């Protein structure tokens, strides 16, 4: 039986309420968890998508749109 090959886009987002300068600790934590999950399962990581400080109440977020565009092309 042929093993399936999965390609993953890793998406991280943190709300505007985080006041830390630059990438937040939570984004770093999300990256660690998702990269480990993907690697343990043999997923190929296509790219990382980060919307730090962007509200989750809308899909009008730059990197969520880039992720969706990338997924349509694969």
Order of strands side by side in the largest beta sheet? 1-2
β-strand amount: 15-25%
Coarse structural class: alpha+beta
Order of helices and strands: EHEH
- Please give the radius of gyration in angstroms: 14 Å
| Outline type | flat
Concise structural overview:
This protein has 74 residues and is α+β, with helices and mostly antiparallel strands. It has helices spanning 25-40, 62-73, and strands spanning 7-14, 44-52. Strands 1-2 form a two-stranded parallel sheet.
Layout: helices, strands, pairs:
Elements (H helix, E strand, L loop, with lengths): L6 E8 L10 H16 L3 E9 L9 H12 L1
Parallel strand pairs: 1-2
Characterise the protein shown here:
This protein has a two-stranded parallel sheet with strand order 1-2. By secondary structure, the chain is an alpha+beta fold. Strand 1 (7-14), helix 1 (25-40) and strand 2 (44-52) form a beta-alpha-beta unit. It is flat, with a radius of gyration of 14 Å. The model has no long low-confidence stretch (mean pLDDT 87). It is built from 2 helices and 2 strands; from the N terminus they run βαβα.
């Amino acid at each position: 039986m042929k093993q399936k090959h999965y390609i993953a886009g890793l998406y991280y987002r943190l709300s505007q309420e985080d006041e830390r300068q630059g990438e937040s600790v939570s984004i770093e934590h999300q990256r660690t968890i998702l990269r480990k999950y993907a690697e343990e399962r043999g997923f190929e990581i296509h790219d990382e998508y980060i919307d730090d400080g962007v509200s989750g109440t809308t899909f009008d977020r730059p990197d969520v749109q880039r992720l969706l565009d990338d997924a349509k092309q694969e």
